[in-house]
Amino acid sequence: MAEVLLSTHGLKAGYGDFQALFGMDVALNRGEVLALIGANGAGKSTLLKAMTGLVRCQPDMVRFKGEPIGGQRPDRIARHGIAMVPEGRRLFRSLTVEENLVIGGERARKGAWTLERIYALFPILNERRKNPGTALSGGQQQMVAIGRALMANPEVILFDEISLGLAPVVIKDIYAALPAIVESGISAILVEQDVSRALAVSNRFACVQEGKVSLAGTPSQFSRAEITAAYFGT
Amino acid sequence: MDWINAIVQGVLLGGLYALFAAGLSLIFGVMRLVNIAHGDLIVLAAYVALVVVEATGLHPLLSAILVVPVMAAIGYGMQRFLLNPTIGKDLLSPLLVTFGISVILQNGLLIGFTADSRRLSAGALETASFEPVTGLTLGVLPLAMFIMSVLVIFLLDHVFFHTRLGRAFRATSDDGEIAQLMMIDRRHIFAMAMALSLGVVAIAGIFLAIRTNFDPSSGPTRLIFGFEAVIIGGLGNLWGTLAGGIVLGVAQAIGAQISPGWQILAGHIVFFLVLAVSPRGLFPKMD
User: Fold this and answer.
1) From chain A, which residues contact B within 8 Å (Cβ)?
2) Domains in chain B and their CATH numbers?
3) ipTM beyond 0.90?
4) Tens digits of per-residue pLDDT, B256-280?
5) CA distance B230 to B24
6) pTM for this model (two decimals)
């Protein structure tokens, strides 16, 4: 039985009076890629935000290696070894590409991922390292956002809408980097609109619908029709 | 030659205004906080310097060795315990808290030091001057203030753009939420920004105390000069703030040259003109 790294237990969370998650149970095992699929507004991003502390919840509702971390400050949760590639990249616009990468790692423990290794994974970033982060194309910005998360040498990376708004050829490049990340010992949760692509690269998936998990398992366990039904709630 | 003299004095005075403004600019840049108490904190620094000088017999300029760390510590504590709890909810709450700090400082100083105006004596330095060109007289003290303000802006700029702390300042300013995911503790970063700001305030306060008389109610005027320098220069641009201070200083000097009563008014008029022609200031931050 694989070790459960990051899990939620009856997670309820939301924004002010608006509740987005109604008892969400998700578990990420060490060494695996978990795909989170679901329609817009199903609660996928809110789940990632609760896991990283950007949305408040009860301590017991999020656990990392069995320890309750729910509701901790985002900077404390990040120190446990949980990094995020946020939706829309959200690079620091007054920082250069290299500064965006450096800031991801300068407070973290050292590990296999260094500036050199990020540049080896995404050579274009080395050429653009003195540019402002936001002067790059969308795909290159996504590479910076991924590199920034890797620089923390985390145990888990949460990818939120990794391919949203990117050209198909760029998406292919981004996904090509995923095996190297997983092989370095990082486990990942992948939020993705493109269900086929998400299922192709993941070990397990969870389908989220109206703030709850409607279906979970391995991609081969269910037919495409069953997954579609869980996705749309039909 | 009178006019050239006036303009040169105005440039040097601008250095002091830039010192008033630099801390204000820094705080606005990092946490979008308008610190209404900034002027009163300058006056507080002047009183701290007064106490240090009276207690130790140090020269006022040397008192900075103690006044700067004391003010920085006050800044760290003030941000951590008074302002941080209000930051992030809306823009008004922290603004009101700084307004409250302003009122408390003014009245606290009134109780502790009475309403008498005070001054720090820098001895012979106050009147020392030299004549680089015939007819142009430069005061040693105003020149020292100007050099100091350039130095302070240079140092702040270096911290902002070439250090780990500066990266955290800029990242937090750009996107506070994501900065936290970089393991940056926002409460500490904000407190460090306020500590740095009040370190600069300490230097400004010492120069203020040497240059003019001050009393517990002197703060708001310094705040206005500081504000005007920041806005003339362009928000979020430290070198622009220096330029803004100089524009304000020169405007006041030219006004005074026309008629003594025009000194302050001329500064305000130039401020309004800049605001009308270029609302983002003369050197808005590139973004």
Assistant:
1) 52-54, 73-75, 78-79, 83-84, 86, 90, 92-95, 99, 102-104, 106-108, 148, 152
2) 2-115+133-277 (1.10.3470)
3) yes
4) 999 989 999 999 999 999 999 998 8
5) 8
6) 0.92
